[in-house]
Amino acid sequence: MHDIGRHFRLESQGRNPALAFAAILMVFGAVASFSQRRTDGLITKSTGLSNSSGAAATPQLYQVMYFLSEGNFLANDSLAQLHYAADSAMQLKVLHKTNVLTFNSLGLQYKAIQYTIDGWLFVCLCGRQHNCLTHTCESVLQPLGLGGADEGTVSLKLHTAVMPGQQVILHTSFIGSLSSGLTRSAAFNYTDPSTLATHSQVLVGASLEPYGARRMLPCFDFPNYKANFSISLQAPANLVALSNMAEAKAQPGVEPGTTMHTFETTPKMSTYLIGVTVGRMASTSAISSSGKNVSVWSVPSLAEQHSVALQAAVQGTDFYESYTGVVLPMKKMDLMAIPGKRGAVENWGLIQFDERRLLFNEATEGAYGRWLAADVVCHELGHQWFGNYVTCQDFDNIAVNEGLASFMEYKCLAAAFPEMPQAALFQLASTPHGEDIGVHEGPRSLAMGADGTPLVKPLLSTDPGFLQYHPEISYSKTAAVLRMLEAFWDSAGENTFQEGIKILMQRYGLGLAALDDVFVALLDGAKTTISAGQEAKSSKHSKLFSVPAGDALQMLHAWITQPGLPLLQLSSNNSMPPVLTQSRFCDWGEFTADDPFLNDLASTWYVPVAVGGGMGSPAVTGNTENAWFEFSNQSQVVDSINSSAGGFNLNAGGSGYYRVQYSPPHQQNLIAALSNITSTDGDSLPVLLQANAFISDILHLSFSGNINPSAILDLAATVAAALVSHTGFGLHLMVAPVVEALQQLTQLSMVLGAGEQCTSELQAYAQHLLGLFAQPILDRIAQEPVADFSKKYGSNYSATPDTFLYDHVKGRVLLGAALSGHQPAAALLCRLYSDSRQGAPPGVDPDLLGAAYQAAAAQLEGCSTDASLVGNEMLTTWQTHPDIQESERALYAMLRTPDAALLRQALDFGLMNNAVLSRSPGARLGAVLRGVGGNPGSGGATGSDVAWQWVQDNFAAGNATMVLGALESLPFQPTQANLDSLGRFLELVPAESLPATASKARLLAKLQHQVHWVQEHVRHESDLCLRAGELVSTELSAATG
Hints:
- By secondary structure, the chain is α+β, with helices and mostly antiparallel strands.
- It is built from 32 helices and 31 strands.
């Protein structure tokens, strides 16, 4: 053990002997202390700890020391040092007699491996000491099983058996690569304030979920093996070093010009939560109500963009502590913006983010960017409780982490940003430029959109590739199901659902939980609240809350183990009482035969159904005995509903995770009632949410072929006539989904050709409706006083929930109208683009700037600049502009150009230019394909044609899973020729993984359905085309009358 602290680079390189001796003393002292330290004083209590793999030993404590050099932070890879040195000690408790230790290690080059048993028996297996069994370590660790070498599962043979209860400490020295586990960020420029010289540097940080820790230290790299971690970092003295916990001590390092940072020992946590970040960073800090130091960090040049993230983090910390009743066992919370990072990772106490998401530029970004920053902080901060404090017992149960955090983030938003209406944002998400919607944004609509398609797995999945192609199920479906249950729970008594969350935290704090455990805790919370004698509510006496916990869990189990979502169909024969049936809803109709999960379409769920009044009256929320009923059979007589009025709806409040199909007369009554919604005050929000759910149902039922799609046109006309559609809530919840549907409808109609009567009439009526949606926005803009838009989102920013949503959506609505041919909308956007090129105050409203760029790139009427010039300008801006948000706007604008060569260039960058993508990590190939595919093109070639040809030409440039997943975003022209072409292409694509196999089946199923749908509905004398003709004639008559 006397050699464990030696930094191997000092052993035989002719270094100063005194310096080498200092290194030995420093680390030996730390490890000796570590070996003798009692774990009683550490945070080790854990309920529900499992040992699912049957290992003979389990980790208790890790001590790891990393040695980073100046060369690790140079941006130029050819000059940089791309490896680091480390020493580790892993303390294990023996559970079963064994002479073999099995653990995880991948890509680490070991220089020394030693172990001790019960603090006295020392064995040096390999190293440069005279008493080591061998000087080289290559053969000491052996891969376990056929996949051990690739997966990093290794075995270590001990020279004597160890017995249950004994303690083994495994000491190692190794070299790690900065290409995985501990990695380098994208480059950034730093200006030295003393010399004013600019240097290009990187940060070094750990991003390990799910199985990256084994690339950073030898460990038990599964979430169920929780342990304490004591981390030290040696780094150049002029850099900042952060880890999970607060710094306990800083002292001169073992090499000149370095500092050794030692951090406090962590609570018990999983290996994937190890957090390390080192580099040149600047921070902004505040103190939470419980005394936690909360800091937002970034590269120094972006230090002015911390305000939104800091507000979310401080107030979010206060919210989570209050809601859960748990104050986390740590003194600080750091949030780090990493250049070039994709996504975010919830390292405990040191959360890492894509800097594009975390930071907010007050001068250039709009409501969407402000929401993105707040939302991602609330999500990752939520993981500190849901994922870190209570952790999924394995990654099959990843929905415990991701689903609960996705559900809770919207409550955090409401607490930290009252102007962001969390219920409306939970219901639906939209992006102003065409970006991908994040996997936890607008979880109800996002999850239902994915869950209605084939080859979708359930929440509980044993497929290791599941998250690669449908992460929105684990994130958003879990959140949406919890939102539905919360509405039902709280109808039994105030804060009933929250009581269940508190029980979950009490039972599984610092431990492990499965999805079943979450549901049982929620059920127990309901029973606790009900037994406390709260005021009687309609669901208090429900069957779910009356039966034993095991029976209640079985009732809910379909939501965990069964994919898809229910379609509730109400009888159309005016029977008294009505009959309700349920089955699995399919967005793509009959073309799902190859889906193994659709073998039985007679799926059933336990569905708590909320019954409300018509769309113009407040939803019933639990104040009457008939407000809720429980539906768990394929067919059920619902005698609690009086169907004679015909104005009731079966998703009061819009929180139900199901679709509802009414009889045609009932459906028409509800469509007509949408025009009665006039208010957006607090009392009317449940009505607006149920209106959104109803609108979503009509649109999906129409495009799936379940109902006559002419309902889309009637629905759109009614929404356009509703006064509430002029408000922010109306635009977000009612207008935005209709705008998207009208755009989809006109794109599908193009299959007939531009000169065909049906195509012309559908496009003409869509243009008319989109103009009606846009005109109130145009009128409002014309009446607004001149303002300096660079200060719109500055320190004096204030907004109501309605104005926030209005700013969030208005650009998208105006662009939709402009692209359809609405001249006033196009003229405004073209003028704004021209103003933006002038660069003088008051500038352009950042909430409209992206729409203005896209209008100019599309060369809409009124935009005088040459389309190719605009397209090339957008390309240059994306590649070189220092502001990441501005570069994102430019990318999505470029996709509107009619220049096919520029479209192909954008696709080239989208797949292959890593330098550009590292600046703009939000730009994924799928979003680029979707943007190009929606471009009508010019000269007979649509953007869809360009994109599809590009995919065929460039498929070999990327792996099959990535390209096929992105291809699902491409809006194909629904022709038989394209279907045949896709079939031939997919025959040649290797099914290299389950996600690739699923994507192939999904691509064919979707295009088959769309071809069939167009043949059925987009033709002369179809109901859809006839209805479009009638409505166009009516509008013409009104215009000439």
